[in-house]
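User: quick one - fold this with magnesium ion bound?
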Amino acid sequence: MGRRRSYLEELNPAQLEAVRTLFGPVLVIAGAGSGKTRTLVYRVARLVEEGVPPERILLLTFTRKAAREMLRRASLLLGRSCERVSGGTFHSLSHQMLREYGRLIGFSPNFTVLDRGDAEDAINLLRSSLGLSEKGRRFPKKDTLAALFSKAVNQGRTLAKILEREYPHFFEYLPEIERLFLEYQRYKREHQLMDYDDLLLHWHRVLLEHSEVRAEISRRFEFIMVDEYQDTNWLQAEIVRLMAEGHGNVMVVGDDSQSIYAFRGANFRNILEFPRLFPGTRIIKLEENYRSTQPILDLANAVIERAREKYTKCLFTRRPGGQKPIRYRARDESDQSRFVAERILELREEGVPLSEIAVLFRAAFHSFDLELELARQDLPFVKYGGLKLIEAAHIKDVVAHLKILLNPFDFLSWHRVLLLLEGVGPRTAEKIITHLRASSDPLRALSSVPARPSYEKGLRRLTQTLEALRRISSVEERLEELIEYYRPLLERIYHDDYPKRERDLESLLSLAHRYQDLSEFLADLALEPPESAVADLEPETEKEDHIVLSTIHSAKGLEWHTVFVISLCEGRFPSAYAVASEEELEEERRLFYVAVTRAREGLYLCHPVTGYLPGEGRVILKPSRFLEELPSELWEEWREIPAEEAREEAASAGFRPGDLVWHPQFGEGEVREVLPAEKIRIYFLGHGEKTLHLKFARLERL
Ligand code: ATP
Ligand code: MG
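Assistant: Sure. Structure tokens for the protein plus magnesium ion:
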């Protein structure tokens, strides 16, 4: 009794209501930092305490790491393990369920999961075999096609609709694209393959077509909870609806203002439709923010104020005081990096642990310069988002062998594996595959492939290795053996940088060590969706105190003491691709809202005023419109008082037309003409041309 009181007291009345409502549909819709995730954690604890067997609770989150973390916290509250609670992502859940129920729609439990790269390869293969890739045609490329197919599935729209709206220039190819799509579906089915979208699609189909499965699932998961519901799509909403058909005990939490995955088919309107999907929904709003200080919240509110469509309201906090967000106009990117590193060193001096500091950016490559600077300063960091271990070519090579062991009919993987052999080109690989296809046991058939002397040795080695691997059961030992085989190939194919790649293989091995089951290992490798939070499978680095560098997409749901948002310039954030469409621009704005609401105490908004463009040299970068729109009383400018001598030098130094300069009042500009009597004519962004006196103008060279 004592314990129950103590933890429920850590909630406000609205949160408590959500935690106490155990039955029926509940929607918690609330702004950033209002305790939505916390409410879910407490509710898990509460359910377990009420005697619900943990495995009857299903917690769906955006990454598996987030689920693990939430369950860890629930266990701490209860003083009792919540590990047996089923936690994961929609994709990992669907994968698990399809391994159990996939046979109902013709899939063996050993089906292969295609990641996005694999899917593109398959599409490419089919595109050629249908004769759609003749030179000279403007037929869409494989990544465009994959994106197109994925959008159709995730948005529940026809290909024609998507083409019409987003790729009108390809509309003339509609019949061919439809044919390719059907062919792709057929191919995957024939070879027991599923891409990410299929995981959702097929699980949905099982649920839809089999009422007995629905009934079983409703009994199995009596309580379903979903975090970050604003980033789900119609298919995920339908999956939840069908799984909960027997009881309707579903609680979802989310914030429409933080919806940032439209490019993957998510739709923030989904959250607003929840009550329609679940009649009788109890709607709970949380308005108090526990995360950030008022000045940070004021700025966040101002950002989202300008959004066209929004449901959640302004946030307030009871936390007193706080430092206004700081804007830093950096001369260029390396000045931005220097600034961030200096502030981080100061924060560390003040006792802020590095793990309480994050640097956020729109695109993974925006942090390259900073990464070098942090390394120079010996400041440890980890990076989330961007290319992951599993996406590297050499890791894919190794994984392809394992996939074959699991599903010998995965001819895409065969293709990759064969091409690694010396003397085997695409045509030979196809010939070998034709031979394998004709057999009911492709692995065995490999030994009877008629081989030319040029690649015979390689092929025999491969055959022996796969046969040996077949006899080993431990995942780790298999991988060890495989790496032994692969090492000489690696050294030949990637001779430029193979030592670094070898280290990656070791990381892979250290991951494998946690698994008993090969299929689980492969699924986990494939299943972390692209751009998801936190490289879930990267080797543990948690012990060390390190800074987080992250794309904003991957920072969802997290918080830090101090947050730096960098590269806030037009073309980078909002991204150049987004500015043409009102809808995408709105999404970028929500992304900025997500970024600023990650900060608890300190928020720095940084933007370099010049940058290098390939072919154009040094150019002026305009500050992001999201910054320019903010009322200036909501932030403070960071000023580094230039040393007197530096200023004098600047004033006397001979400026020349074309020089880039910075003026305390007008900001960045370009020298147009040097005039007599120490005067100078400068063009300032947003202010036009000004004629200034060099002695008083306090110009700085950029
Ligand atoms: P986001 O929208 O960013 O995902 P959220 O709504 O999920 O945010 P949480 O992460 O759950 O918010 O909570 C934000 C912070 O506020 C956390 O540090 C959490 O522990 C704290 N918090 C939430 N509710 C309370 C409360 N009632 N009392 C004290 N602290 C709270
Ligand atoms: Mg949250």
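One thing worth noting: Residues 10-12, 15, 30, 32-38, 255, 258, 290-291, 557, 559, 597 surround adenosine-5'-triphosphate (ligand 1) (CB under 6 Å).
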